[in-house]
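Input record (one chain):
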Amino acid sequence: MAGVRFAARRGPLLLAVGLGALCVGAAHGVWQVLTAPIPESAAPVRQAAERPAPLTVDVQSITAQHLFGVPVTQTVAPPTRAALSLGGIWFEPDGNAYALIGTPGQPQRPYRVGERLPGDIELTQVHPQHVLLHRDGREETLALPRSSLDAHPAGDRPGP
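The corresponding structure, as predicted from the sequence alone:
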């Protein structure tokens, strides 16, 4: 029981001594780390500054790879001299397309790419405003007719 009374009276003093000893130990550890000699392997090695070779870009080799696809060159085919009329086009970029084509005096009918028209003419391509035909070994264009309404913006049409 005497030990309990001694600890109760001297508790704060013992706590202060223990905390002080802990602080001294921590300070000693920090001092040893800061004042320790640097090993030879960790010493900084000074070398002549080497500059990397400049980066060169070969633009020709990059463009030859066609990263965005092969460019499509469109040649303008001359207008056809065949007696055909283009009445309408159903065009979708995914390839679902056909054209209403007819000859004078005959009703127009739908044709798809690859089909034969009157006069042994082949429909080769369908575009939003025209079609391409293969006639007598060369490409020709058959365009949608332009109406007089297309030539004037809305509200700017000539009056009666």
